[in-house]
Amino acid sequence: MNELHELYYSREDSEFFRQELKKYKGENFLEIGVGQCSNLIDLQPNFSLVAGTDLNLQKQEENGHNLEIFKADRASCFREDSFDVVAFNPPYLPSEAIRDLAVDGGVGGVEVPLAFLQDAKRVLRKDGTILVLLSSESSIPIFREFCGVNNMVPIIVASQKLFFEDLYIFEIRKCELGKPAR
Q1: What is the pLDDT of residues 131-175, one digit of tens each?
Q2: CB contact burial 88-120 (16+ within 10 A = b; e otherwise)
Q3: What CATH class does 12-174 carry?
Q4: What is the rounded CA–CA span in Å between residue 160 and residue 164?
Q5: How do beta strands 124-135 and 166-174 pair?
Q6: Where are the domains of the chain?
Q7: Contact call for residues 32 and 87 (beta carbons, < 8 A)
């Protein structure tokens, strides 16, 4: 994998995601891939602890806010069952190779989102919520199948039509075998 990683600047998808995230509250919040930290800054009043990870922390170190930000790949630096809400707007554009970590989502546009989701599930508390933004350009059926195989229930809680794609925000919860998700 090429190490090219540009900082992802807020675009339409980021603002759409931020508005949905503001509806959630709890004790501990984690964003995987914080970009410019806009979500973390806006969510500080909603949570006791607001944390984030990113591979590129150049801009975050200069932001002047009291945020818990870690240079890490996904949620690798956190222990299991740590967060009430885990959110990510991952790179989701289909690509044969991941050359730009800010936008390339890998095969079907879901290779990277699925890796994020697997790690998010690990750090999510039993009754927690994962929020993820995907595009109609991504392979949504593969994403849904992965959730089912891994005992997670994905529900679209918001959508937005853009000129060239539709955006979907999924709320995902763990489910126990034989029991429906709450």
Answers
A1: 999 999 899 999 999 999 999 999 999 999 988 889 999 999 998
A2: bbbbbbbbeebeebbbbbbebbbbbbbbbbebb
A3: alpha beta
A4: 11
A5: antiparallel
A6: 12-174
A7: yes
